[in-house]
Design a protein that fits this description.
The protein has about 240 residues and is an alpha/beta fold. The protein is about 40% helix and about 20% strand.
């Protein structure tokens, strides 16, 4: 049987502190655990202004399986979507650069897409997930997730975890319809998949908050909540126009 292809996109913006260590961790893990696949790791750079680009180019020299994709614009969604489209595969994954989600959960995500699910979503809110984060952030995350389900009628418990995978059907038919290119792009992705009746699967994960993982927080909890609610409104308007 032909070897299936996997693209693992890592969206980055000013990640010089963790990039080399974490990309090598993903690379080493994939070599050992995805040996039956034709896989590649794509560093998708949203116009970083630190040493992220230089480090990424050094990593590319290590193996042809590591790619560097640069965008002059900012936007997490833009970084993931454009990199997926530039390096399409049968299984398309994205993971946050801080590796907050334990990489040990990667084979489980791949296997579920192989079994026929269209989109597989890491969820910090499912019973059985092991989550380490400050109490205030945990409560805020649950409240925002509840409001999202209330506001949109979404059936998924956690849309914001930076650990998701989609098959070719979603890449070709759903991803081009996404209009939200910010860090809530994956909420729109899930909503569009749900609207089309596609097979959605949430999985438990082991997850560690980035501020506990050697990476500095980039915003207060209140700023994040305010921005998230603003994105809800923009997303609602975007979906109305479809």
């Amino acid at each position: 049987m032909p070897t299936k292809t996997i693209s693992i996109v890592i969206p980055v913006y000013n990640e010089e502190a963790v990039l080399r260590k974490n990309i090598l961790e993903i690379f080493d893990f994939s070599e050992k655990n995805l040996a039956n696949y034709d896989w590649q790791v794509i560093i998708s750079d949203n116009n970083s202004n630190d040493r992220t680009g230089l480090i990424a180019k050094e990593l590319v020299e290590i193996s042809g399986r590591i790619k560097y994709f640069f965008l002059p614009e900012k936007g997490k969604g833009l970084g993931v979507i454009r990199a997926w489209q530039a390096h399409p595969a049968e299984i398309n994954i994205f993971m946050d650069a801080d590796l907050a989600t334990d990489i040990e959960d990667l084979p489980k995500l791949v296997a579920l897409i192989e079994e026929g699910h269209d989109i597989v979503i890491g969820s910090r809110h499912l019973r059985g997930s092991e989550v380490s984060r400050p109490f205030a952030r945990k409560i805020t995350s649950h409240v925002l997730a509840f409001l999202l389900r209330l506001y949109f009628g979404i059936e998924v418990h956690d849309t914001a975890c930076g650990f998701k995978g989609v098959n070719q059907k979603v890449l070709n038919e759903i991803v081009p319809a996404i209009r939200n290119m910010s860090w809530t792009f994956d909420t729109e992705l899930i909503l569009l998949c749900q609207r089309e009746g596609l097979k959605i699967k949430e999985i438990t994960v082991a997850w560690k908050e980035y501020c506990l993982n050697g990476r500095k927080s980039r915003g207060s909890i209140w700023e994040i909540a305010k921005n998230y609610l603003g994105e809800f409104r923009r997303l609602k308007n975007s979906l109305k126009n479809k």
